[in-house]
Give the backbone structure.
Amino acid sequence: MKPVHILLVEDNEGDILLIREAFEEAKLVITISIAKDGEKAIKFLEKQDDYKDEKTPDLIILDVNLPRKNGHEVLCHIKQSTTLKHLPVIMLTTSSSERDISLSYKNHANCYITKPVDVEDFLKAVLSIENFWISLVQLPTQI
Amino acid sequence: MGKLTSWVARNRIATAAIVLSLLITQGIAFAIFESEKKNDFMLVEQEVLRLKSQLEESLNHSVTATKMLAYLIRNDLLGSHFERVAKELLEQNAFIDAIQYVQENTIIRTYPLEGHEPTIGYAVLEDTTHRREAMLALERGDLYFEGPFNLLQGGRGIVGRYPIIIDDEYWGFSAVVIRYETILEAIGTDSTGTNETYTYQIAKINNNENPIVFFEDRKIDLSGVHYSALVPFGNWMVSAQLNTPAYVREGFLFSVLGLLLTTVLGLFFWYLSDQPRRLQLLVDEKTNDLNLSTQKLEDYSKQLLQSNNELEQFAYVTSHDLQEPLRMVTSFLSLLEKKYGHVLDEKGKQYIHYAADGAHRMRQIILDLLEYSRIGNIEEEVSLVDMKAVLDDVLILNRKLIKEKKAVITTEELPQIYAEKSPMHQMFHNLIQNALTYHGDSISPEINIRAEETVTHWIFYIKDNGIGIPSEYREKIFNLFERLHGNGEYSGTGIGLAICKKIAEQHKGIIGVDSEQDRGSTFYFTVLKKVESNQAAEHEIV
């Protein structure tokens, strides 16, 4: 199986670390690219400017509260782009507000996860993403 | 003018009263006027009559004297005794200055001679005026006075003539001369013809010539209060006039008094009729003040509401934003312990432990604060809530703790009430958690939950056998961040009961506790029954 490439759109350094460490315990080889704000995320996906050599990811983990363009805007961009809309987008955010959740699904997010507060639960959640989206699920880019 | 007519229209009674008062007072004044006038005229009449009688009385002496002389002459008894007779006549009869007789036209003898010399031999009746007057005496056949006129002998006076007829033929006259001064003395006036009260005049009636009057420069004012009477002796009109008629003054006085009274009445009625207008002004003023203060209250309460809202928003946003960094602290401390615990000594592990514990407590506080700020901020739906179901939910949530403490929970039948579900859940959760936390070391918590119904409220009781609360803190414990124990004794944030209090108030109920130190506590809260007519229900806690 090809190594899975994940684009993590997240501005919180701490969370980036946690997620990286969680994925490091995974069975599979996972490459993680980081975009620290919404604008950079879009540029990455569109291979613009500094990102022209980047590869399209297999999976996108998207935070909502981002500088410049927020997660909803990035989501909309992805799901309206003919070249990107097939990519699974997992919303992973601190927000548990109904508004954020329903808006995300309305804009065709593949799933929405609220970041667990407890660190153990957090790691478990990340592992669950791995188990489900990478081990279990057939990804469109992996066929 | 228009104002007056409208006033009149509005105050018919007042106008009628004023008009009536005017009529009555002026009527009385007029009556007094008339009566006084009558009185005055009467006085003057009396005075004139008095004067007349006094004059006539004094002139009667002349009658006696002239008659006597005439008799003597007629009966040829005089002889040469004229002087003696005259002297005696004068002595016997007052108010005569001289006595004389005229034969044919001429004055023959006069007594006293002294002062009257010019009269001797005077052909008196050749003078036109004297002749005429004398003829009048002759016609009357009685004493008749001429004058006052300037006497031949000097001075002024009157002359009275009595005709002497012998054998049906004119012989002459017996006459008296009375000087002006004597007349005055007789009638009791001075030469001015006035006194304090009256002004007199005696005027001879003659048709065409200059007036012959006793008091010069005087004309009786016919418009004044006067009276005239005829003294036939000399065809004199005796008149008197009241100097200061009282009736005008009196009448005027009463009229003015009446007007004053009416004016006072008028003012009084005006004041009365103005009362409603003044009252209205007062009412308007007070209404205005009331409106202003109501407005102020409204503004203030609006401000308060706004400030409250802002505060709650602030609390919400703050606690929300605080959670993120806290998560970082807790997460990495935990990871630190997990991955690097093996290189740390006991002390190091303890450091991490306290840090993690602090963070954990902080998180709890933030969650509680978040909950506190949520209440009232978020409009929840009031629905029919099965309190039994809610309690069961809460017990399930706390099952781990219940099991751990070996707690015994008993409930009695709980009703379905109209309330906000989530807050009720929170209420039970907090109270039960407290009951499970604040108990003696070796004692298993025993908790009983029951409900009571009153006309207006539902009352819920949560009874425990815990450590109890001293009476002085019974109200304090519901305040935010108020605790009776440190974290070493019992853990808690001091927010739970404050949240319960807020929820109770939200439901228009109250919360409280019956407790004694070491004897357990019974927490109770009330919920207002949702009834349309329950606008201002009062609490009834037995």
